[in-house]
From TrEMBL:
It comes from the Bacteria. The lineage of its organism: Bacteria, Pseudomonadati, Pseudomonadota, Gammaproteobacteria, Pseudomonadales. Residues 2-51 form the BFD-like [2Fe-2S]-binding domain. Signal peptide: none annotated. Its cofactor is [2Fe-2S] cluster. The keyword Metal-binding applies. GO terms for molecular function: 2 iron, 2 sulfur cluster binding; metal ion binding. It comes from Halopseudomonas salegens. This is Bacterioferritin-associated ferredoxin.
Length: 56
């Protein structure tokens, strides 16, 4: 599913970034552009990051 429509980023992209060590929405923004435009995706992105970390 698309999390960030502005940059075409999916939940899978975010999970992959999290597994590669990305630990904050700010960092995600730098790497994938998440939250850099309208910002609507930020809370969902944060939830996915958290969820991925908890599954470690
Ligand atoms: Fe992610 Fe707009 S949906 S910045």
């Amino acid at each position: 599913m698309y999390v960030c429509l502005c940059h075409g980023v999916t939940d899978r992209d975010i999970r992959r970034a999290a597994e590669d060590g990305c630990s904050s929405v700010r960092q995600l923004g730098k790497e994938l552009g998440v939250g850099q435009q309208c910002g609507r995706c930020a809370s969902t992105a944060r939830a996915i990051l958290r969820e991925t970390r908890n599954n470690d």
